[in-house]
Amino acid sequence: ILILSYLILSYLILSCLVLSCLVLSCLVLSCLVLSCLVLSCLVLSCLVLSCLVLSCLVLSCLVLSCLVLSCLVLSCLVLSCLVLSCLVLSCLVLSCLVLSCLVLSCLVLSCLVVCSMM
Q1: Which ranges does the record mark as transmembrane (predicted)?
Q2: Lowest-confidence range among 2-6, 34-38, 74-78, 111-115?
């Protein structure tokens, strides 16, 4: 009976050891799986965040370049309008001067003709 009780006790101890080893290995495996999942979620969120930041930077650069380009085009248009208006104004002034000179010379010529007839 002593041998039988020894065998039963040793079987119980051995089965407890095997069961505790199984539970411990399951715990370690579940911790490893959980840590891998958490790490992959962190890596994925970092990738998504970096993609969002990069797309925002690209979009802001595009908007800024469009604004700079439109300002350049607008300033060129304003400058060309100013140059064109100055040219038109100078042509008008020059034509007025030529016309007044012609009128003055006609007046002088007519005065000379009238004076010579007298």
Answers
A1: 6-39, 82-115
A2: 2-6
- Taking the CA atoms of 85, 87, 89 and 91 in sequence, report the sign of the dihedral they define: negative
The whole-angstrom separation of Cα 82 and Cα 75 is 10
Q: What percent of the chain has pLDDT over 90?
A: 86
Report residue 45 CA to chain centroid gap.
22
- Domains held by the chain: number: 1
Q: Is residue 21 part of a domain?
A: no
Query: Tens digit of pLDDT for each residue in 14-55?
Result: 999 999 999 999 999 999 999 999 999 999 999 999 999 999
**Domain coverage including residue 51:** 29-87
Tell me the Cα Rg of the chain: 51
Query: Could you give the CA distance from residue 111 to residue 104 in angstroms, rounded to a whole number?
Result: 10
- 5 lies in a domain? no
In a domain, 17, yes or no: no
Structure tokens at 96: 């007025």
Examine residue 70 and state whether it is found in any structural domain, yes or no. yes
Local structure of 118: helix, strand or coil:
coil
